Known about the structure:
The complex is a heterodimer.
Chain A: E1 3-7, H1 8-18, E2 23-26, H2 33-45, E3 49-52, H3 56-68, E4 73-77, H4 79-94, E5 99-105, H5 121-125, E6 136-138, H6 143-160, E7 163-169, H7 170-174, E8 176-180, E9 206-207, H8 214-234, E10 238-241, E11 248-251, H9 254-269, E12 274-279, E13 281-283, H10 287-295, E14 300-305, H11 310-318, E15 325-329, H12 338-349
Parallel strand pairs in A: 2-3, 2-4, 4-5, 5-7, 6-7, 11-12, 11-14, 14-15
Antiparallel strand pairs in A: 1-8, 6-13, 10-12
Helix pairs in contact in A: 1-2, 1-6, 3-4, 9-12
Chain B: H1 34-47, E1 54-58, E2 73-76, H2 82-93, E3 96-102, H3 103-109, H4 111-120, E4 124-130, H5 160-163, H6 169-173, E5 181-186, H7 190-208, E6 214-219, H8 223-226, H9 230-244, E7 249-252, H10 269-275, E8 293-301, H11 306-319, E9 323-328, E10 338-346, E11 360-363, H12 366-372, E12 381-385, E13 398-402, H13 404-410, H14 417-428, H15 435-445, H16 452-470
Parallel strand pairs in B: 1-2, 1-3, 3-4, 4-6, 5-6, 8-11, 11-12, 12-13
Antiparallel strand pairs in B: 5-7, 8-10, 9-10
Helix pairs in contact in B: 1-7, 2-4, 3-4, 11-15, 13-14, 14-16, 15-16
Amino acid sequence: xxxxxxxxxxxxxxxxxxxxxxxxxxxxxxxxxxxxxxxxxxxxxxxxxxxxxxxxxxxxxxxxxxxxxxxxxxxxxxxxxxxxxxxxxxxxxxxxxxxxxxxxxxxxxxxxxxxxxxxxxxxxxxxxxxxxxxxxxxxxxxxxxxxxxxxxxxxxxxxxxxxxxxxxxxxxxxxxxxxxxxxxxxxxxxxxxxxxxxxxxxxxxxxxxxxxxxxxxxxxxxxxxxxxxxxxxxxxxxxxxxxxxxxxxxxxxxxxxxxxxxxxxxxxxxxxxxxxxxxxxxxxxxxxxxxxxxxxxxxxxxxxxxxxxxxxxxxxxxxxxxxxxxxxxxxxxxxxxxxxxxxxxxxxxxx
Amino acid sequence: xxxxxxxxxxxxxxxxxxxxxxxxxxxxxxxxxxxxxxxxxxxxxxxxxxxxxxxxxxxxxxxxxxxxxxxxxxxxxxxxxxxxxxxxxxxxxxxxxxxxxxxxxxxxxxxxxxxxxxxxxxxxxxxxxxxxxxxxxxxxxxxxxxxxxxxxxxxxxxxxxxxxxxxxxxxxxxxxxxxxxxxxxxxxxxxxxxxxxxxxxxxxxxxxxxxxxxxxxxxxxxxxxxxxxxxxxxxxxxxxxxxxxxxxxxxxxxxxxxxxxxxxxxxxxxxxxxxxxxxxxxxxxxxxxxxxxxxxxxxxxxxxxxxxxxxxxxxxxxxxxxxxxxxxxxxxxxxxxxxxxxxxxxxxxxxxxxxxxxxxxxxxxxxxxxxxxxxxxxxxxxxxxxxxxxxxxxxxxxxxxxxxxxxxxxxxxxxxxxxxxxxxxxxxxxxxxxxxxxxxxxxxxxxxxxxxxxxxxxxxxxxxxxxxxxx
Lengths: 351, 471
């Protein structure tokens, strides 16, 4: 298996190419721009299609077009760009089009700055645009997972006909680690049962999100909710580190979970019963698993995030507020430090 | 009389997607121009045998339900975004794509997408229905509303002092280089409809032949929202609208334009391995074992090679089969001012990739030295450029002033100061990596300029020899 040192943003493009994506449309924004750069380099080399769009609105709508035609398509951006894409993502959800969206989060609100943050959580995990929809959200925490999650995102997008996010942050996008390249490239096949591919077989197909009749739209919405419920049953991914006897459980995703991993090791070395629960899918959120952990006696959760308690809210909802959920966070482009997490652990442990 | 006309070519016989009691009637108002234009486009689709290889894009506006009618693949899209969606379909399929839009959709909310798709010369046919008014939303002012024309959002008539002037789309589009064919036509009387038919067919022929972007603007009646009779509306088009929007050809490069095809996508594993150069991966140093973890911070001016020195160390760690991570300061910081990167080399999976308390600090300039020196762990080492002169090393740390440029110059390689630093890093043993790994890293770094490898390996030796004498 070939291994190379690559940036997280590059690993996304590697994953997409091995997943059989043949269309990329994007617009520059730090700290996601390397995805655009690498796609502009590699897609044309393979006869695949790259367009630097005029805006994020155009990018996501170009994705809507290629996805309608049944092609594996993706785009990448960061907070302000994702905000602009929300209209298009709502349409993708309404038309049930498989598309992969990579969000390399930066600090907001507004123009904010280009430092890493995790504050797109709500707009990405909760739908984000208008209407009763959800997107699947994968949260990698290493360069290897940036590639693997992107491949998985294409699989899930096709399987469920749904937009799928790979949600990462400036650190994961910018950092370099060794990447084991996939062994085999996927050969994509358009699904002629719904795609509008400009072919005789798909001539009668229609891609739309319009349901004029209220009852029909309600039926459609209910069908979407059933789909989301099925996704919650089947697609939850998570990782645990020493949670079985833990009295304090850190909950974190993405880069924050890497910091927590070190924090757990340090705390255990001091004899503290600390564990880490890491959601790898944010929708579907690992509710049942957190509920099971909350059922243990005397557990306190600490949400470790680079946002204002957006993840903490979901933990509380998942466990129905049955146990305390503390928050340790940084905002504004600042990274959580190991010391900060350790201090919080000690405070919660009453030490 | 020739054959009896039972239905329009290229359109469905019955509009089952529309539903309702009149399956062959459109949803358009009496006297509306959309029906005529649908018929002209449908005919061209059928006559040029395009229905099996064509996608029609329905906009937001009165033509939002164009998919009720056109017998081809159909996609309905967001307001104003049709040219972007059309771009996506066209790039993906390389087939015939039609973007059918009204004046609010195309010239207001979608103006950017309209101009940019035209400017890229996308292989799409844009049909632009200009009736000077928002239809579906109930008669508001459009970008093409005439001066003095009354709508429900300019009750006193459009006043250029507050509402600007009518936008001339054909004129704008034909100021661009890429479009192949740009024409304005009207549906106001039989003679104009015949000309419109010609323009529609011309545009569809250009699409059939894959020659590029076409734009046909169609002056069209909207008696409902203009509040006049269809007959009066058509007269108004001829007498008033055409003064503002002259009906004519703006561009016809059909003869010169070359057909072009998009390439086929290559999905093979072999091609991927080739473009990522996977065959030439450097095998790891055999038998190397690293124990523990080393946290390294490298800092200096942007342009001093700080980030690439960090990458070389990362390559060395990978060559030694270690876990490794590299994380830069990124963005404007790296394009001026100071720049730094964190490298962690470890025998086990790495937690946070950010180095706060380095075991080893490489400071290439004084501001970086001052910024990070107090973060260095007790017992840690600071390697800094001797050109900085006198510095104060924090207690418990070791300072190594390296005359990097001087050593490089002496070795006859004035560009090799960073390799000297790299060599001193190696000599400290702080990174826990074997010397062979540093050599491998140089080989990989200079893989594209192999001539430079021996010179740089020599510099490593120079640095090591210097280090042996000095610490």
